Amino acid sequence: MTRSDTPSDAHWTILFLCWLLAGSSTLGSLFFSEIMQFAPCILCWYQRIFLFPLVFIFTTGLFSGDKSVVWYALPLVAAGWLVALYHNLLYSGIIPENIQPCSRGVSCTEDYISLFGFLTIPMLSLLSFSAILALLLILNRRFSR
Amino acid sequence: MKKQHLVIFSGIFLVLLFVLGGTIYKNQQTKKLGFLARDHAEIFIRKHSPTLGSDEAKVYLIEFMDPACETCSAFAPFVKKLMADNPGKIKLVLRYAPFHDGADYFVRILEAAKKQGKYWETLEVMYQSQPYWASHHNPQPALIWRFLPAAGLDLEKLKNDMNDPAIGQIIAQDLADAKTLNVTKTPGFFVNGKPLVTFGDRELQQLLEAELEAQYPR
Fold first, then answer.
1. Do B10 and A104 touch (CB under 8 A)?
2. Which residue of A has its CA nearest to B197?
3. Is 0.85 exceeded by the ipTM?
4. How far is CA B12 from CA A24, A117, A128, B17, B208, in A?
5. What's the pLDDT tens digit per position in B161-195?
6. A13 to chain B nearest CA, in Å?
7. Would you say domain B42-215 falls under CATH 3.40.50.150?
């Protein structure tokens, strides 16, 4: 078996799925804030910081065919996943939110939408980060094989 | 199809979906607000709301404003000009959305000035002196008092009237209506209940002209 630096078709498709997930999540997040005018809370901002660059990193990976795209993307995805997890625990009340003085900002536990009774915005974020994380881990295992 | 093309086409598709979704959403909002304007006009104009212009006017320009907001101040001459260009046809309704920290204080001054019949003069003075007291890195609300005499106010009476609890209720009501109408930034404009969807002076003029055309057909 020869080792090459360019990924196979299956690998490319997995990376493409990551790109689609990151891209649609980014646009979805922008839709909530720019079109529906929901002000993003502070935790949402941290998740966005880890999410938005992924679109560009995956795009570069898709075009260059460089396998190390996994290593460039993983830290962002892992950090975003952790923030999303924390946000969901806070949101569902498993971790209590410290009592805070009223401010002009947006509370991280204020609920805006919930589709089908459980799909809240933080839940969408967690699902998206989890899916990307899983795909990247699969990709990483296939590359190291 | 080449892989790279797939990426580019998918990217374009996603962006188009975003734009289309945005247009649909905005149309729905406009329709919903149209319904509110017809059946719940009080959300746009409360009894306490200061108004300017003829009672015969058929076009109501509702502005959610904050006395400490630079854009509101910058828009004031433009709004004035739009009204002067269409004499007797436009009625301006001011609503409060004091989103800046401490902006309630200036709303209180305005409402107290209203009791002396100097509302619009005071607002004018406020907007013009705004750079002195509303700087973002160093707001100095007390500086406003240097400028207020220019509006011809009785300052002692003003200081007493400012503490009227009724003003707090006015602000609370206006903020509640702002929330209902999804006003999150100032100035927030509505023309006969139709929101200014894309913010800008030309956009406001177009919205006003379309409504003038509809209400005063030539």
1. no
2. A35
3. no
4. 12, 31, 21, 9, 34
5. 999 999 999 999 999 999 888 888 889 999 988 88
6. 9
7. no
Q: Does A20 touch chain B (CB under 8 A)?
A: yes
Contacts of B3 in chain A (CB under 8 A): 12, 16, 62
Tell me the shortest Cα–Cα distance from A141 to chain B, in angstroms. Answer: 23
Provide the pLDDT confidence category of residue A101 given band limits of 50, 70 and 90: very low
Contacting residues of B for A31, CB less than 8 Å apart: 18, 21-22
pLDDT digits (tens, 9 = 90+) for B92-115: 999 999 988 888 899 999 999 999
pLDDT of residue B16: 95
- What is the pTM assigned to this prediction? 0.65
The domain defined by A9-95+106-144 folds into Bromodomain-like (1.20.1550)
Structure tokens, A5: 């630096």
Looking at the complex, does the CB of residue A19 fall below 8 Å from at least one CB of chain B?
yes
Q: Which residues of B touch A62 (CB under 8 A)?
A: 3-4, 7
**What distance separates the 2 farthest-apart alpha carbons in chain B?**
79
Average pLDDT (B52-74) is 89
B16: contact with A, CB 8 A cutoff: no
How does DSSP classify residue B98?
Answer: -
Chain A positions in Cβ-Cβ contact with residue B4 (cut-off 8 Å): 62-63
Q: Residue A10 — very low, low, confident or very high, per pLDDT cuts 50/70/90?
A: confident
Q: What residue spans define the domains of chain B? A: 3-39, 42-215
The string of pLDDT tens digits covering residues A46-75 is: 999 999 999 999 999 999 988 899 999 999
- Assess A62–B contact: CB distance below 8 Å, yes or no: yes
Partner residue opposite B7 with nearest CB, options A19, A30, A104: A19
Residue B139 is predicted with a pLDDT of 76
Q: Which two tokens stand for residue B16?
A: 């188009």
